[in-house]
Each structure stands twice: as C-alpha cells, then as structure tokens.
Amino acid sequence: MTAQQHTFDVVIVGAGGAGLRAALEASRRARTAVITKLYPTRSHTGAAQGGMCAALANVEEDNWEWHTFDTIKGGDYLVDQDAAEIMCREAIEAVYDLEHMGMPFNRTGDGRIDQRRFGGHTHHHGAGAVRRSCFAADRTGHMILQTLFQQNVKQGTVFFDEFYVLDLLLAGDRAAGVVAYELATGELHVFRAKSVVFCTGGYGKMFKITSNAHALTGDGPGVCYRRGVPMEDMEFFQFHPTGLYRLGVLLSEAARGEGGILRNADGEAFMERYAPTIKDLAPRDMVSRAIYSEIREGRGAGPDGDYVYLDVSHLDPGVIDAKLPDITEFARTYLGVEPKKEGVPIQPTAHYAMGGIPTDVDARVVADAANTVIGGLYAAGECACVSVHGANRLGTNSLLDIVVFGKRAGINAAEHAAGVGHVELPEDPAGAVTRMLEGLAGHAEGERAAAIRGDLQVSMDEKAGVYRTETLLKEMEVELASLRERYARVWVQDTSRGYNTDLLEAVELGFLLDLAETLVVSARTRTESRGGHFREDHPARDDKNWLKHSLARRTDSGVRLDYKPVTHDQVRADGEEVLAERGGPMSPANPPRGRQPLCRSRCGCDASTPRPRPSRGSRPTTSRPSPWTGCWTSCTG
Ligand SMILES: Cc1cc2nc3c(=O)[nH]c(=O)nc-3n(C[C@H](O)[C@H](O)[C@H](O)COP(=O)(O)OP(=O)(O)OC[C@H]3O[C@@H](n4cnc5c(N)ncnc54)[C@H](O)[C@@H]3O)c2cc1C
Predict the structure, then answer these.
(1) Strand partners, 359
(2) 8 A C-beta contact, residue 364 and residue 374
(3) Which of 251, 337, 266 lies closest to 305 in space, CA to CA?
(4) Could you read off the pLDDT of 398-409 as tens digits, one per residue?
(5) How far is Cα 350 from Cα 407, in angstroms, rounded to an integer?
(6) In 3-state terms, what secondary structure has residue 528?
(7) What does pTM read for this prediction?
(8) Looking at 89, 116, 174, 284, which residue is catalytic?
(9) Does the beta carbon of 141 lie inside 6 Å of ligand 1?
(10) Around Cβ 581, how many Cβ atoms within 10 Å?
(11) Residue 115 beta carbon below 6 angstroms from any ligand 1 atom
(12) Which residue of 45, 172, 202, 269 could cross-link 17, Cys pair, CB 3.0 to 4.6 Å?
C-alpha cells in the first residue's frame, strides 16, 4: 500500500477534551494537525455529565489545597502528589479559561459559576462534603467539547476527521510521526512531526457492562505499547457504582450530589452502614463494593436479586428537571422507569482507566522507571497516566485532568517543536501497518471480531472486575491466551476499501486484547487491595510492599512488570500521622514540610510579590494567590 505524506510541527491524535485543549495551545504556536477517528464533537468527552471540579469557593469555603488532599486520599495514596497539586492549583484558571471561551456553566443567583457536591470532595480534610464541581446541567462534557471545538475552528486548527492512527513512528529515542488509516478511502497516510501528542481516551470496551462508548478501545496506549512504551498502573480500573442495570449507561454521581440515595431491596439507605460520614458520596470504589456486598448478602432487588436502586424520587421535581435532565431521561428511555416516582435499578459499570501511557507533569511520555523522556512524545487525558488519580479517580477530576494536562501537552509539544528539526523517518514508514492490515484481512473464513470481543468482555467482567482473586485472574490469563489464538484467525468479511469498519473493529480488538493482558498480569501480581483494584484474597492495602506504580512492558515472552516509586511530597500514605506531626492540616500557615516559598509555575513571577489580577466578569472575590508560591497566575508557559 502506498501512503500519502504530510508534514507538521505537532500532530495531536484525538479530538476529545484533552486533544482539543492541546490543539488550541499548539496551533497558536506551531503548525499543528489533529487526527481523530471520530468527528471531534462525537468524542466521548461529550458524554461526561456531572461536572468539572475546581476550588472556586463560589458557594462555600474551599481551597485548592483541600482539593489536592482529597485527590491524594481518594486515589488511595498512589497519586503522584506533585501532579495532583498542579492539577488542583491550575483547576481554577482552567475553569475561567473555559468560561471566557463561552462555556455555558450553570449560575448561582448572583451570577457566579454554580457548584455542587461530588463523591470524595470535602472541606477541611474530610470534615464534610463540599460543593466543588462546576457544571452545565448534566451535560458538562458536551458543553466543554463544543466550546473547545468552536475555539479551534475559530483559530483555524487543521483537522483530519475519521482518520485512525495505527502506528507510532520512532527514530532512535525520538518521536518522528504517526501512520493513519483514512476511513473513507482505506488509504494510509504518513504524518511526519517533531512532536506527537496522544489524547485517545480510555479502553472500557474490554468490559461488557461499561459506561464507555464503542470507540473506547485504547488505540493510543495500544500503539505505544507495541512500540515499546510501558503501560503504567493498568490494574487500576474504576467501576462506577451507578450504571443502568444490565446496560451500564451511566447515571452520574451528580444524582447523589443533588441528594439521591442508594437503597437495597428493603428500601434501606445502606451506605449509612458503609460510610457513616459521607454516605452515598463515598469514593466510587467503596460504593461499588458496598453495592455488591448488598447483592451477595441477599439484599439485592429484582427477580435475580442482582441490582439496587438509585432513588431521587424525594427530590424537588424542579431540581430534577433543571439539574438532572439527561440521566433521568436515560432511565425512562432505556428501563421504562419514572425516576420522579420510583427507584432506578442500577449496578456498577466499568467506567474509567486510571492507568495508561506514563507521563511526567509536562505531559512528556517516559520510557522507564527512571522516567527517561522519549523526545517529542506526549500524552494527556484518559489515555495517559500522569498519575493524578492514583488507584481511584474522584468524580469530576477527569474533565479537569483533560483540560489542565491537555493545555500543558499542547504548550510543551509546540515549544519542543520550535527547538528541533524533523528527524528522518524510518524506511517504509507505513510497512508495519500494511502488514498488520493485510494479515487481518487475509482469512477467507474464521470467527468474527464481535464474537471474540463479546467473550473477552464477559470474562473480564467476571474475572477481572470489581472483585478479583488469584484463581480468577489466573483463569483470565489462560482465557486471554485462547482469545489470542482465536484472534489470529479472525475473519474480516468486508473486503471494501472505503468505510471498512469491519476491518477497523478487528484492529481495535487487537488493542483491547493487548491492554487486557497488561491489566490482568498487573492485577494478578499486585497482592493487595487499593482503590479500584480489590483482591478478595488480599483485602488489605499493603503500603510496605505495594506503594509503587507498576509498569507493564511488552516482550516476546509476554508482559514484563517493573515498578517505580510514587511521588510523595505532601502527605504520606499514613496521612493522619503526617497531619499530626505537622501540627494540623496543610494551610498557608502550615505548609507542607520542606516546601520553599518559590514560584513553582513557570510564569517567571516573583513569588514574594503577588500580582493581583484585574477583575473580570464573574471572577469571585475569593480568587487569591497560591498560598505556597505567592503566584497569582497558574501560568504554564
Ligand atoms: C458516561 C460518562 C460520564 C462521565 N462524566 C464525567 C464527569 O462528569 N466528570 C469528569 O470529570 N469525568 C467524567 N467522565 C470521564 C471523562 O468524560 C473522560 O475521562 C474524558 O472525557 C476523556 O477525555 P479524553 O479527551 O481523554 O478522551 P475522549 O473524549 O474519549 O476522546 C478520545 C479521542 O481520541 C480519538 N481517537 C481514539 N483512537 C484514535 C485513533 N486510533 N486514531 C485517531 N483518533 C483516535 C477519538 O476520535 C476521540 O476524539 C465520564 C465518562 C463517561 C463515560
């Protein structure tokens, strides 16, 4: 197959929230192309419902340091704390950036951006729930995506829509470009670039009951993995407690943030027993396990006793219509249930990948446990692992992650491109993709990709889902080997050149199988329970042996695991003790130990002389300099 050639400074793969935010920065500074397999506004960010958190303190007292603490604790201390601090600190600017681009946030009576509660977000280090999530009804992701897309169109960003990136080109230790397949024509395109940014989203389609769309097949991580990049923390996958029964369609935590209650078959509000302080707003891994405990102990509802209810019937119907319109409509449409009158049947649903392509806080992809940077290669969003979510992501921290680290990725990729030349492409750059496609399309009979994918998903739900054991994970490893054998004989029935989604589904299944293997091997080896990874045979968290990130690398003999330390510069895993040692919670008067009052952002400001910002529109009066740095900006450039 001959391939068309294109040359850009920066190539961004993916046009969800992370990709579009990166593109906005990169295309201001460098010749940039965005390559996306979906039309940009169909990206999965558009499905995000509940909100994006930032400690604006618009409706009650809050600050980004409490947000950082919650993120670290919610992630069961596997969070890299420098990254979490950056995210929570830059969150405030990230929300105002979007506001100034025209994002239609819900408003308080006095015109500020409204905020609501979400699981795990607290004030005073866990003293009670705080209203930190900024939202646009239950369509926050949709609004972010539309806003960012409009800005990119205005700026003239170049898009290649419905192009599937299937390979990463490396020259020595540097990224050199990507190879993409054009859906409409079946042609291959080689994109030569000085910087490549992966923003391809998650890979929830390896599970059957999932909130993730059909396209979330882990292509970016899959491509990088095959080119030797290890995958970080793959064993940590989040199961959201409230998926529509049997369908997995998400009912956002916003429902519980607005006062919705989980009830078992007896009508009992059972979360009061599992998390007496924050009850239904406990972190997602805890709530998901509580639901399964109710079901296992015979208090599940329905003929098979295999679901519980999400009850919003006591809420003011006006609140439901104004703040939860989409998710209540899902219940009516898909289950025929009227949420204003009755409980909605729900069960946990595979939702979010905490693991992925390892990066540093500048979104640069790293190749090993020593954090060796691969020149010109970046990743951001759900496909990346920076690691701000550790073992368990807090709700509304992902929309935040994608805009904060998307922006950093775009700026850094463009700056890198400005300082280097293009490297020589390898000989026959599209050769590997050509051989892969010809191999997949080369069988005249066999098994369809959908059948193999279906079996993978069912087994992953059963054996590598909310509850895991050595026996189940070992069985899953054996099953994956057999699924791989079946995949080697997969039959692509459609022989067309144009719009051959049959062929592309077979390609995507290959990525899912690779990533499922990294998840299962990492999960089997980690003999502890932490966040989204729960081992029934090792139910306790084991900081002595397992407070470390896993790195799963592809070798000829299977997955090889390596580990790297967690960055702990604020709170140790025995958080309570550190707080006591320090003389109380972190605050401006009681900063994290060892922290110097230096500006850690790269805006060049003098940390000792804060620069007040001019008042703008609805900027709240609580806007203030960073307590640690004295810097009023969250400048990243
Ligand atoms: C139902 C649901 C509700 C959610 N609600 C919230 C919420 O309220 N708050 C929150 O913080 N988080 C929420 N999340 C999580 C959050 O929405 C996602 O983690 C986030 O939007 C991911 O953004 P992204 O830019 O990384 O990826 P995506 O938005 O998934 O975009 C991926 C992009 O990559 C492209 N792509 C993929 N593969 C290829 C390829 N091979 N070649 C070219 N392009 C490719 C796609 O076309 C797409 O443009 C929710 C998730 C779900 C599923």
Answers:
(1) 365
(2) yes
(3) 266
(4) 999 999 999 999
(5) 27
(6) coil
(7) 0.90
(8) 284
(9) yes
(10) 11
(11) no
(12) 45
The pair of three-digit structure tokens given for residue 529, joined into one six-digit string: 């329970």
Q: Helix-strand-coil percent breakdown of the chain, rounded to 5?
A: 35, 20, 45
How much of the chain, in percent, has pLDDT values that exceed 90?
A: 82
With pLDDT > 70 as the criterion, what percentage of the chain qualifies?
89
Q: Is 188 in the pocket of ligand 1 (CB under 6 A)?
A: no
Query: What's the confidence (pLDDT) of residue 598?
Result: 33
* Gap between the Cα atoms of 382 and 361, Å rounded: 14
Q: For the CA atoms of the chain, what is the radius of gyration?
A: 23
**How is residue 47 written in tokens?**
């499905």
Q: Give the distance (Å) from ligand 1 centre to CA of residue 48.
A: 8
Query: Given the structure tokens 């192309």, which residue do they identify?
Result: 33
Give the C-alpha distances (Å, rounded to integers) separating 453 from 200, 336, 514, 548: 20, 29, 12, 31
**Contacts of 109 by beta carbon, 8 Å cutoff, 6+ apart:** none
Strands 373-379 and 364-366 come out as antiparallel
Structure tokens at 60: 């009650």
Q: Give every CB contact of residue 272 below 8 A, 6+ residues apart in sequence.
A: 279
595 is catalytic: no
CA 202 – CA 204 distance, rounded (Å): 6
Q: How far is CA 374 from CA 32, 197, 313, 354, 410, in A?
A: 20, 12, 53, 21, 16
Q: What is the Cβ-side half-sphere exposure of residue 28, based on CA atoms within 13 angstroms? A: 13
User: Which amino acid appears at position 109 of this protein?
Assistant: G
The closest alpha carbon to 425, from 206, 174, 253, belongs to: 174
Residues 6+ apart with CB under 8 A from 471: none
Q: What is the rounded CA–CA span in Å between residue 118 and residue 53?
A: 9
